[in-house]
Design brief:
Structural class: mainly alpha
Bound molecules: MU-OXO-diiron
Helix content: 55-70%
Distance between the termini: 47 Å
Order of helices and strands: HHHHH
Number of strands: 0
Number of helices: 5
Length: 190
Amino acid sequence: MINYSIIMNTKRLSTKLEKALSDQMNKEIQASQTFLSYGIWADNAGYSGVANFLWRHSQEEREHSIKFMRFILDRGGKPKVEAIPAPLKDPKNISECFDSVFRHEVDNTTSVYKIVDLALEEKDWATWNFTQWFVQEQVEEEKLARDLIDQLNLAGGEKASHDALFQLDKSLEDQSNDVPSATEASSEHP
Ligand code: FEO
């Protein structure tokens, strides 16, 4: 019979970091749900290109969540799936939609930075190294969201003509549906 009392503790994460990483795993799923919901709003409002962009983004957020889950497990920890708060309510228009996507990304960056801070404080270099991929990824994601706002502003912002909005929507529709797998990405190539 195995005497479990003598099995050594192989967990290589502090309880605090394990919880912070697990919370982030859940936060990424919440982001995925919000973008899924926004995609439904966009498609229903006639912006199938914007919906296409948001659904791809939703899938990426799910990949991010899995990346956190995998790391916690690889370090001997156990992530916990929590209840997800409801997604943000539908935006009023396309401008509010893009602004909200950008704010969401900035909020997520802040959350990632807190984990980086904690890893630094604890001198947990494995976690610090792991989080660098997300630091870089957030630069890319904030840029994507900012580009949407810029394109809309160039098209006339809230006063954009139907034709300009049609062209913007079409340019997003034409983008590839392929979502690169985050689990296979490196810090140089998020
Ligand atoms: Fe997973 Fe948009 O951050």
